[in-house]
Amino acid sequence: MRLKVRELLEGYTFSIPSFFLLFLVLFFPFVYVIYISFFTKYFGHEAVFCNLKNYFEVIKDPLFHYSFYISTLYTIIAVALKLLLGLALAILLSQNFKGRAIVRTIVIIPWGIPLFVIATIFFWFFDYNLGLANIILKSLFGIKIFWLGPEYVIPSIIYVNVWKGIPFFMVNFLGALQTIPKSLYEAAEIDGASAWHKFRYITIPGIKYVMLIVCLLSTIWTFGEFDTIFFLTRGGPGYLTHIIPIYIYFQAFSRYDIGMAAAVSTLTVPIFLALISGILWALKR
Amino acid sequence: MIITAFRPEKEIYEGLVFPREISMNSILAIFGFGEEYKTVGSTLTPYMINSIYISLIVMFISTLLGTLGGYALARIRFLGKDVLSTISLFAYVFPTVVIMVPIFLIFSIWKLINTPIGLILALLSHTLPYTLWMLRGFFQTIPVDIEEAAFIDGCSRLQAIFRVVFPLSTPGIVATAMYAFTLAWNNVLFPLILISRMDLQVLSIGILNYMKADFVPWDRLMAASFIATLPPTLIFFVIQKYIVAGLTAGAVKR
C-alpha cells in the first residue's frame, strides 16, 4: 500500500510539469476558442456576447462554403495520391535490386526538408519565367503555363503536397511490408495465386492497420496544413486556394473578426476529433 | 518515374545555390557580407540567431519535461495515466491552426506578444506532446526487469532512472530532442502571428519576407532556403529510423 501511494506521488510529480504547461498553452486556448466563438469580438474592442450569431454568419458565408469544399477536395485527392504512390513505391522498394539503399535515401529526402523551404523551392519551380516547370514545358511543347494562376493552382498545390508527403507513406508501408511472413507468399505461389491475388489477399490485409493510421494522420495534417499554401499563394489567386486554415488566418488577422475565426476553428474540431479517434482505435488493434 | 520527379527539383535547386563562382556571394549576402546587399530584405543573420537559440531552448525544455513525463506515462502506475497518455497523443496530432486565434488572444492578455518567451511557450504546445508521446513509447521498449533488478539492489526510483534507464535510452532521448529542435525550427505559424518586430523574428519568416518583395531576390532566397534546410535535413537523416518507428510502432508487430 505504501508503495502504491509513493508511485502515485512519483507519477504526478513527474508528469505535472508537462501537463501544467500543456494546460496553459494548449487546453486553455482550446477551451477559450470555443468560448470566444459565442462572442462578437474585434481586435481592440470588448467582446460582446452574441449567442450563435457567428455560427450563422459562418454558415451563410459563401467563402466558407467554398473554403470547406476546396479543403475537402484538396485533402481527399492529395491523400489518395499519396496512398497510391506511396504504396507503389514501397512495393517497388521491397524488391531486391541493386542500388536499393540509394533510391530509398533519395525518395525519402522531401520528408526532411522544412515545409517553408519546400514552399520556396516550388515558388521558384512554378515561376513563369525562371521556373523549371516552364523550362521543361517550353523545351518539350513550346508552351508556358501560369502554374499558380487560376486554372492550374489547385493541381499545383496538390502536387507540392503529394511530393512532400509520399515518403511518410512509403517508409511506413515499407516497415509494415517487412512484417508479412515470406512463407505466406510462398504458400500462395504453390497454390497458383496470381500476383493480383497475392497483393489483394496477403499484402493488403497484412498492412491494413498501418494504412489506416497513415491515411488518417495524413488527412489531419493535410487538412490542417497552413505553411506551404500560405507561402506559395497566400490563399490566392482571388480566393481559389482559401483552404480552411488560410480562411481562419485571414478572418482573424486581416479582417480582425476574431469571433468568426473562432467559430470556424470550433467547427473543425469535431472533424479532427473523429479522425484522431480513428487513429486511437487502429493503434489499439 | 516518381524518383525522377523527386530529382530535378533538388539538383537544379542546388545548381542555383552553387553556380560555380557567383555562388558564395549569395550565401555570404544573407549573412550580411558584400556591398549592395544592405537594401532589399538585408541580412538574415539576426533571424538565424533567433531561430537557433529559440529552437534550442524549446528543444531543451520539451526534452527535459518530456523525459520525466514520458517516463511516468510509460512506467509508473498512477491514476489517470492512460488518460494523460491519450491526451498527449491528441495534442501531438491536433493541428495548430485550431489554437492559432486563442493563443494570440491569450498571449496578448498575458503581454507575451513580441517576446521570445511567448514564442517559446507557443512552440512548446507543439513540441512537448511530441516528446511526451515518443519518449513514452521509447521507455516502454526498455525491459522492466533491468529496472527491477536495480530496485532490488537498493536503488531508489530516481537512482534507477538516472543510473539505469536514462543511459540505456540515450539514443532515443537524443533523437527525440533533435526532432523537437526541427519542429521548432520549421514552425511558421507561431512566429507569424506572435512576432511583428523584425529584430525578434525567426528565419522562416525572414524567408517569407524575401518572397513578398516586389522584386524577388532569387539567388538569396534560394541561398537562404538552402541554409534553412541544412539543420533539419541533416538531423532528419541522422535520426530517421527513430522517427519512422515512433508513430506506427503500436500497429506494426515486430
Question: What does this 3D model show about the protein?
Answer:
The complex is a heterodimer of chains A (285) and B (254). By secondary structure, chain A is mostly helical. Chain A has one domain (58-284): MetI-like fold, CATH 1.10.3720.10. Helix content of chain A is 76%, strand content 1%. Chain A has twelve helices and two strands, in the order αββααααααααααα. A two-stranded antiparallel sheet of chain A has the order 1-2. In chain A, strand 1 and strand 2 form a beta hairpin. In chain A, helix 7 packs across helix 9 (195-223). Chain B is built from eleven helices and no strands. Chain B has one domain: MetI-like (MetI-like fold, Orthogonal Bundle). Chain B has 254 residues and is mainly α. Chain B has helices at 2-17, 22-30, 45-75, 81-93, 97-109, 116-140, 144-152, 157-186, 189-194, 203-212, 218-248. The model of chain B is unreliable at 1-23, 35-40 and 249-254 (pLDDT under 50). Chains A and B meet through helix 1, helix 3, helix 4, helix 5 and helix 7 of A and helix 1, helix 3, helix 4, helix 5 and helix 6 of B.
Quick synopsis:
Chain A is mainly α. Helix content of chain A is 76%, strand content 1%. Chain A has 12 helices and 2 strands; from the N terminus they run αββααααααααααα.
